[in-house]
Each structure stands twice: as C-alpha cells, then as structure tokens.
Write a structure and sequence with these properties.
By secondary structure, this protein is mainly alpha-helical. The chain has one domain. Helix content is 75%, strand content 0%. It has five helices and no strands. Helix 1 runs antiparallel to helix 4 and helix 2 runs antiparallel to helix 3.
Length: 142
C-alpha cells in the first residue's frame, strides 16, 4: 500500500529541511565566530598562549593574527545573526566568511593547531549547510 503526497506536503517538508539547515549553519557560524573572537582576544592580550614557530612563511606578529581573528570573528557573528533572521544577503556572506575563516585558520595552524583544525571543520560544515539548501524552499510562502 502506498501513500501519495501532495505538492503542498512536499513543499512543507522541503521548507522544514531548508530552515533546519540554515539554523544549523547560523549556530555553527555563530560558534565559529565566537571562538575566533576568543582566539583574537588571546592573541591581542596574551601572546604567550600560542606556539612560537621559526621560519614560517606567513609569520606575522601574534598580535596581528589576534586582530585578524578578532575582526573576522565579529563579522562571522554578525552574519550568523543575519542567517538566523533569514536575511537573503546572509547566505552568500555566510559562505564567503566561512571560507575566509577557513583560510585564516589554515594559515595560523602552526600557532594553535588543535583549535585551528576544529574551526576549519566547523567552517566546512557551515559552507556545506549553506550550499545544500534550496533558497526557493526557504523563502517561498507557506
């Protein structure tokens, strides 16, 4: 015995999945941004928290890395809030800021390896969640 679904039921299911993934991406971007803010503050206020490496190609002063991560973290939190309220600009900006955060965390990998790897993974999940959502399912009227 089979059951048939109406287009309206499929639309509700697609909308629920789309909004669930967008909320997931929003929360993960908010967490990633918050962790980058913490990392930035550690770099700005207390340089001795990080590993010191010699001869690293992308070697900046650790305070500079702190300011970079602090700025990106604040932007990521703002975009995460935009995603949570379903702002249309936030989907594209979410993918962009998550990619930029992945690059920044990769480049600062020698200074704080475990933290960098965790943030790279979180940002990868954010990009995935934002890219698999069908925007028409998210923004179509019920």
């Amino acid at each position: 015995m089979t059951t048939s679904t109406t287009p309206h039921q499929r639309s509700d299911t697609a909308k629920a999945a789309a909004s669930g993934l967008t909320i997931f991406a929003s929360v993960m971007l908010f967490v990633s941004g918050g962790m980058d803010i913490c990392r930035g503050l550690m770099g700005v206020l207390e340089d001795e928290v990080f590993l010191v490496t010699r001869g690293y190609v992308f070697e900046f002063d650790l305070t500079t890395w702190g300011w970079i991560h602090l700025a990106f973290g604040v932007i990521a939190v703002g975009v995460g809030v935009g995603l949570f309220v379903a702002a249309t600009w936030a989907r594209i900006m979410g993918v962009i800021i998550a990619a930029v955060l992945m690059i920044a965390n990769f480049l600062s990998l020698p200074y704080y390896p475990l933290w960098s790897l965790i943030l790279i993974a979180i940002d990868g999940f954010v990009i995935w969640a934002l890219c698999v959502v069908d925007p028409e399912a998210l923004y179509e009227p019920s």
